[in-house]
Amino acid sequence: MKKLQLFLFLFSSLQIFGQYSVSGTVTDANDGEPIVGVNIFVSELSVGTVSDINGKYIINDLPNREIVIRYSFIGYQTMYKTITIKNKSVKFDIVLETQVIEGEEFVVSGNFIATQHQSSVSISTLKADQILKSGSPSLIAAMAEIPGVDFISKGPGIGTPVIRGLSLSNILFLNNSIPVQNYQFSENHPFMVDEFGIGQIEVIKGPASLIYGSGAVGGAINLIPEAVAPQGDIAGDFGLKYLTNTQGVSTNLGVKGNQKGIVWGIRGGINSNKDYIQGNGLFAPNSRFNRQSLKLNTGLVRNFGSFRLFYEYNKDKLGLTNEPAINAVTENERENKVWYQDLTNHLLISQNSFYLNDFKINFDLGYQFNNRQLTGLEELPVLVNMTLQTLSYRLKSTWSINENAKLIFGIQGMNQKNENGEAPQHVLPDATLFDFAGFAMGKYHFGEYIIIEAGFRYSYRKINVPEQPAGGHDHDEPDHEEDEVLISFNNDFKNLSGSLGSTFELSEKLFLRINFASAFRAPNIAELTQYGVHGTRFEAGNSNLSEQQNFEGDLGLHYHSKHATFDVSGFYNHINNYIHLAPTTDSTDEGLTIYRYTQANSRLYGTEASIHYHPHPIHWLHIKATYSLVIGELVSGGYLPFIPAQKIRFELKFTKDRWKALSNIFIKVGTNIVFAQNNASEFENNSTGYNLIDLGLGFDVKLKKQFLSFGITGTNLFNIEYFDHLSTLQEVGVLNMGRNVVFYLKIPFGLKS
Questions:
Q1: Where a domain ends, among 49, 72, 99?
Q2: Which of 11, 437, 548, 677 is the right S-S partner for 521, CB 3.0 to 4.6 Å?
């Protein structure tokens, strides 16, 4: 009997981990000829291959379950096919049509891995080549091309994303699905990320707390790393970018390989910039920034699962354009000398997935070490020295009940500790934070035309701040014997979040998306206990803050055909107990106004739209336009801070597949029309509108056996003088960046194939 049980167990294991494959032929829809070099990729397994000279392909060692395969090749429409492997290898031929406009993307950041059309939440994507060709000085600035997304800036080196009017602690920034934790409570503290080694960016617009946790009440941004190398390959690329405005030089080099499922990669990058030049020709004192990064990854990919390890190191030195720096900096230089943030970040991620028949189990573990130092004038010591250590985890199981039904359930948590080193100012106190949550979501297909998604989440947060002098003051210090303020906090927060959404396929080309969600956010350590000068104001926390809860409704319509795509969406977001910073009537002895965190019921509402039209038969012309509007109000009257102005982006793009030795040629001209923002909050100024003109061109060229991609992009070509409403440099009278021309070069290479 025991021998029979052992035999059945071994047989079952073979059924789970059998050696299955998908193979087939890729052909052209126009002439039926095979297509050579098509990229065939299974994103959730990070495995793939390319079609051979006969258009044939095979992917081995696949799990005994449903998978999604992406077929992509330059000049053809990218296709995604869902294939179910049930104890057998599958033969699947694919026919690709020539590409007229970009198709839908396969996204991993939603509630369920699916195409954009199938998701009940609004998800936008930005690919690596779009970032490269944007002409933006930073990754955060490049995201502003997505309607509904903007950024708060303190110069080109310091940017904080905004999604539908919400920012800072109301959105989550994810690196490979792990929340980035590096003091993002203030607009002066940017996320320590860069564009090197990124495959694409996915932006969830609207509450995403069910999957990612407290803080994603306004949305989430997920950086997806580049794909692994094809089986048996060792390949790499070199990138170089030069910015005329800041005399900025950005360069990176990466190599990756895949030997029998053992995958690895290494990439390093440097980005160095002088102070930027304003539209009036003057330099913005101390807006210089310097970045260095190193990224390593290794792992094992098998048919029963994948095990990946990622390490990232970032070193940023970011100049602060404040009044003391403006008085001290007289030369436009590259080196950071006074009033700059010296930031160090280490991020270690372990991503593991297992396949057990109809179950997929993911276990993600992340450790982040972030040190923030602030240097003032040369004769002063380091003013701030804080270290934030964060351990985060998520255990998630996806159950494919049948072809129509899927269920996700799991737990998630985070342990965090902030410590102050030897520095006089404690922007945040020494503190610990503990998060824990459980969640469940279901997805069901009603026939071919209706998809329903629903779920809930329970979140718990505990914050402990032991009694200590506020702001780092010590009663033994001179001049602080009588005015010492002690702070302490020990409390927890808990609440429920939920969502219900649906996608309706009204026709083959027309989709309707509806989503209702309620998300929860607990106050953070800064909002509860901060006490001291921050920038140009004195900020005080409020230990009486309660949980923030929002209720949002989204309605979106998507249309696509061979020659046009159109998207339009509207949203209404009501937030109970919205936490924000507001000025008081009090001031410090030095004359600084005291700002205190407070709460009030608020609402944000608006719309976004985009269109991409490729008129037939004018195959060389593309017309693109986007529109975004958001209004943020206090229910009791007045407006919310950091709400972007109404914007229209328009672009004409002329393309040609090949001309002599050049290929993938494009020329584009665009305009950004930004309207006046007359709905400023009580500590902001209204902003006037402005129009900017951009121009770009690029091409690929083959020199002997080597391909090169080259391009030039110019922004603000007419050197317009303007203040963007989300630029905090308005406070010191510094304009936004003037004319900037970016030259970029990318050289891919292969070491083994």
A1: 99
A2: 548
Cβ 501 vs Cβ 454: under 8 Å:
yes
Pairing of strands 537-540, 486-505: unpaired
Instruction: Give SS3 for 232.
Output: coil
C-alpha distances in Å from residue 579, one per residue of 416, 516, 602, 636 = 21, 22, 9, 14
C-alpha–C-alpha distance, residues 420 and 430, integer Å: 6
Give me the residue label for tokens 């992406």: 70
CA angle 83, 86, 89 (to 5 degrees): 75
pTM for the model stands at 0.89
Distance of CA 78 to the CA centre of its chain: 23
Of 167, 44, 26, the C-alpha closest to 96 is 26
Predicted pLDDT at 274: 96
Average pLDDT over residues 396-424: 91
pLDDT at 377: 84
Structural domain of 274: 198-752
Omega prior to 617 cis, within 30 of 0: yes
The pLDDT of residue 330 is 92
* 395 and 255 assigned to the same domain: yes
Q: Is the pLDDT of residue 295 over 60?
A: yes
Average pLDDT of span 358-378: 91
Residue 17 sits at φ, ψ, to 5 deg, of -115, 30
Q: Which residue has the tokens 């007419």?
A: 718
C-alpha torsion 731→734→738→740, nearest 10: -90
- The count of structural domains within the chain is 2
Distance from C-alpha of 547 to C-alpha of 521, rounded to nearest angstrom: 6
Inside any domain, residue 724 = yes
- Write the single-letter amino acid at 408: I
Tokens 């969502």 sit on residue: 499
Beta-strand runs (E) in 617-661: 621-634, 647-659
- Map residue 44 onto helix, strand or coil: coil
Spatial CA neighbour of 224 closest among 128, 293, 297: 128
Reading the block at residue 375, the tokens are 């240097």
DSSP state for residue 143 in the 8-state scheme: G
If DSSP states are collapsed to H, E and C, what string results for 30-80? CCCCECCCCEEEECCCCEEEECCCCCEEEEEEECCCEEEEEEECCCECCEE
Asked if pLDDT for residue 14 goes beyond 80, the answer is no
